[in-house]
Design a protein that fits this description.
homodimer, alpha+beta, BirA Bifunctional Protein, domain 2, Rossmann fold, Translation Initiation Factor IF3, 3 domains, five-stranded mixed barrel, five-stranded mixed sheet, about 35% helix, globular, disordered N terminus, ligase (chains A, B), protein biosynthesis (chains A, B), aa-tRNA-synt_IIb (chains A, B)
């Protein structure tokens, strides 16, 4: 047995999600072969499993963004690595590094020669750097991959429309590809003074830690940047000559590989990764059992080839595991840890009876095993994969909405739900920055310091729980003298 | 007229290729909208035209590499930016930066657990940095995009086979996509002492400067790296236990955006970019002329839409130029400078007569204009595009092979062809490093210092001009006492 020769024991996740989320998460992404640590803390190698998923995100977005006719650029990164990226090397005088904005917007000015060039939507698939005190693979990388679009519009309406469309798209990506429910909304009062500026976000939820996390965002800068960088066009509707100069309206929208980290944190369990079928590189593994004779092996190989070709024709990503020298249990374990949605054992018995057992990764025990006739697999498997995708989403949604979210309309309920029950709360809010700070600072106000410091006003959801557009009750905060304007979402922020 | 309002004059290349290649090249890539300069010298923004081409290179390679089942990784770049990348910021103590090898190969060791993991072919689409004294967009970027594969094999044969296959593939990419002929070969004597190590290259030729340039390469490291990093597997064919450890055989192959620079330098002319149709984002531009009435405009729009839909169905990338306020000549000029292979004027007359004039970018004058019936365009245009692709390749090949290459079998011919006629020479060569250095140093030996310093032994071509495998004449160098082993290629190196 090669197993004993090599002395390799099967990879197992050794910590429970509910006991020690950080260690569990770390083990799941490493043992599931998504990432490996690099030579500096906070830097991670994306292995083929994770890189393949990022490519799926990329091609999903490319397909869905096609109608926008984005223009793709590649801007060098060295000129704006930024001082934080240099931190590991303790470079001095680095505060004079230019940032991404100061590199890109002067070009934006140059490239926008007339209103005909608008909307300009500059797309980049690139790398960014940030300083992370407590790095965590995918979720908090010091160096990470992202899609970033910087756009310029002739009117505020056009910019707003784009932002709404993009929030919808990012939210669809989370739901459709990653089986994760998100809440679309706008960041609250921080920018309220200058009404041109706002930030749309999609907020996801990690049930194991009761934490909410920003999954993607769209900054609406209004005319702030175009005024700073003098990005203007002549008014095309002007009748006088020369036509007046208009400052353009700018957005910046981005989604990063953090999306994959959110997916892992949401669906995976104490046995390892659980991957939604749409994002999984291998959707079905066929684990072949040992044949006892050459003839039997020949029949088994023929059946395997036929099954692979029929599944592939049905659009299924299938892989054969005919690894010798390892027990079936050892090999199952590898498929379990790596999160493959379905696996099938195919051996001489199965070929004779023309029946196999399909095992679902998301339901490991008896309820996840289904007997199925081999000739029907090419129709049963696509349906099962679709069910898995759907059920992962439904479970995540149920946890977020029903179990973990409260609509609170009085202060006691609000505080109790937030601090004691650790729920996400929707509460009527005045949208004043000072009031937001008061609530976020409640922890230091005597309730629970450690937890309180992570409570945040996450967003003002686009879909309000009330029937009317404007909220009519007073602000949730009893010390606040204003009326509520909207329902705002509060909770533990990642 | 908007033109006069905006005061924009059409972009024109103001320098001739034959007069001042560097300035011409710079203007062609900037005015053809491929690149823009960034805030640091040597750093360039790839604009949509160039980035789109790089994506075509990427997808061509992805298609052709599919049978190899490469594994795609993303390795952080900050840990090995390297000291040269830091040069613009004059960072001190930077010589202690790790390099790409010292980051990646320890992982290679970790990931290769058994012979089953071989061949391991780690693919990356990534960024690299290099110091460039005389930066030139695409050809000599300080920061550039590339594909890089690091592979490990169990036998020397397997590694050699891969290298040969990859050289063939890169050479096909140049021919098929970029319409550029290349010579496949191996770097000569520098590594001859250690026969495990060699470097395969594809050499392209830039006619305007009589310079050869490395278009892509494949390093064969033999077991050098596996010995340095202790990358071993157990011998799968061993009968004794424990099986002996074998050091793996490693290659590294790469192609960069330089390929696009070589393409520009080869095909473009004094009017701007000339793009091979397969790499061009827009293959056909339909330039619509002004209609004199609303009715006429309606008819024209209908005809345009019909033509676009028929060309698109035929797989042609087509764009309509209905820019108002600019003269036809001004608009033609933009399509010429940007290198679009074909453009068509479509106006009320053309619609009435159902005949248009197709203008070829590669043949700007009378010979490039063809009258064609509109209903036949969807068959004529694909053929014309294929012809352009083919002719660009044939012209480049003719220049390289017939006009610019000499087979020299005596010293006088060799020196005269190299130094006076500035040709590429194939000459019988002993493959000794000292002899190669003697020839490369001829410039400093009295002949022509300035030119001589750029003469290099470019490669030993895989296809030898002689009928026999081994060359039988003495070495070309009369001061050399050895027999020739192969025909080697000498010329001005970029």
């Amino acid at each position: 047995m090669l197993k004993s020769i090599l002395g390799i024991s099967p990879p197992r996740v050794e910590v429970n999600k509910e006991d020690d989320f950080d260690t569990w998460y770390e083990q799941v992404v490493v043992k599931g072969e998504m990432i490996d640590h690099c030579c500096l803390p906070g830097y991670f190698i994306l292995k083929p499993v994770a890189y393949g998923m990022w490519e799926k995100v990329r091609s999903w977005l490319a397909d869905h963004l096609q109608p926008l006719e984005l223009q793709s650029f590649s801007v060098p990164i060295l000129p704006y690595l930024g001082d934080r990226a240099q931190a590991p090397y303790a470079v001095s005088g680095s505060s004079s590094f230019p940032n991404a904005e100061s590199v890109i917007y002067p070009y934006c000015r140059k490239w926008i020669k007339s209103h005909r060039d608008l909307p300009l939507q500059m797309n980049q698939w690139c790398i960014r750097f940030q300083h992370e005190q407590n790095p965590q693979p995918l979720l908090r990388n010091c160096e990470y991959l992202l899609q970033e679009v910087r756009s310029a519009h002739i009117t505020k309406d056009s910019a707003r429309q784009e932002a709404a469309q993009i929030l919808e798209l990012y939210s669809l990506l989370y739901r459709d590809l990653l089986a994760i429910p998100v809440v679309k909304g706008y960041k609250n009062a921080a920018y309220l003074q200058d009404t041109d500026i706002s930030t749309g976000v999609v907020i996801a939820y990690i049930p194991a830690t009761n934490q909410c996390i920003e999954g993607a965002k769209c900054h609406e800068f209004g005319q702030t940047l175009s005024k700073a960088y003098e990005i203007t066009v002549r008014d095309p509707s002007a009748t006088a000559e020369p036509a007046a100069l208009l400052h353009v309206w700018q957005n910046c929208w981005r989604i990063s590989i953090r999306a994959l980290g959110v997916m892992v944190a949401t669906h995976s369990d104490n046995h390892g990764l659980v991957l939604p079928p749409r994002i999984a590189e291998t959707q079905v593994a066929i684990v072949t059992a040992q044949a006892s004779s050459t003839d039997e092996q020949l029949i088994l190989d023929t059946e395997t080839d036929r099954l692979v070709s029929r599944l592939s024709s049905a659009g299924i990503r299938v892989k054969v595991d005919d690894l010798e020298g390892y027990s079936l249990g050892w090999r199952f374990n590898e498929w379990i840890v790596s999160g493959t949605p379905l696996f099938i054992v195919l051996g001489p018995n199965e070929v004779t009876n023309q029946v196999v057992t399909i095992r679902r990764r998301d339901l490991l025990h008896a309820e996840g095993k289904v007997e199925a006739a081999i000739p029907e697999l090419h129709t049963i498997i696509p349906t099962t994969l679709a069910n898995i995708q759907e059920e992962l989403y439904r479970n995540a949604l149920a946890k977020f909405q029903a179990d973990q979210t409260r609509i609170a309309d009085n202060w006691d309920d609000f505080i109790k739900s937030l601090y004691r029950d650790k729920l996400v709360c929707l509460a009527p809010h005045c949208r004043q920055r000072s009031c937001e700070l008061y609530i976020e600072g409640m922890g230091s106000d005597g309730t629970d310091q450690a937890l309180g410091s992570h409570i945040r006003c996450l967003c003002v959801p686009l879909e309000q729980p009330g029937a009317t557009e404007e909220c009519t009750t007073p602000c949730i905060n009893p010390t606040c003298k204003y009326s509520a304007l909207k329902w705002a979402m509060f909770g533990y922020a990642y």
